[in-house]
Write a structure and sequence with these properties.
This protein is mainly α. It is built from 6 helices and 2 strands. Keywords: Membrane, Transmembrane, Transmembrane helix.
């Protein structure tokens, strides 16, 4: 459990101080999207098929801080530093760098207690090798979509009648 709370504190502290690009409304939208997307994904992989779990199988109160405060700040950091205006090669290398960091973190989370808190059922690290870039690209697509929506001109509101 030490690793769990240390990761939550570390990720949130770094995200809070490092974010220079994302507006507060974008942070809220990304945070909310991350929680919703993680819950949908975990409903199947964790709860239904027991591919992996935190602490113990099934729904547990100790998982709640992780669902709310563990992954969202990581996504904030990923998007904050993403090289949006750079070449495709720089973007690919950036995602590859994050892939390495995510796999290192997952390996750390798999350590025995008190440092580790993540457990595999049928899930294997090489599944994460494939899934992480897909999930990062989904996150990036969501970010581009909300940025596009923010940049659209709103229709003027007609007089209230």
């Amino acid at each position: 459990m030490i690793g769990y709370f240390a990761a939550i504190i570390l990720f949130n502290t770094v995200a809070f101080f490092a974010n220079k690009r994302l507006a507060p409304c974008q942070v809220v939208q990304i945070w909310t999207f991350t929680i919703a997307f993680q819950l949908i994904f975990d409903t199947f992989v964790d709860y239904k098929y027991h591919g992996y779990w935190y602490f113990s199988k099934g729904i547990d109160w100790v998982n709640l801080p992780g669902m709310i405060f563990l992954i969202p700040p990581v996504n904030i950091l990923f998007l904050n530093w993403f090289p949006l205006q750079k070449s495709l090669m720089k973007k690919v290398l950036y995602i590859f760098g994050w892939e390495v960091l995510l796999l290192m973190y997952e390996s750390f989370a798999l350590l025995p207690a008190p440092w580790g808190y993540f457990h595999y059922g049928w899930w294997k690290l090489h599944y994460s090798v494939v899934m992480n870039p897909v999930l990062l690209l989904i996150l990036l697509a969501f970010f581009k979509w909300i940025t596009h929506l923010e940049n659209k001109k709103a229709a003027p509101v007609s007089g209230a009648g």
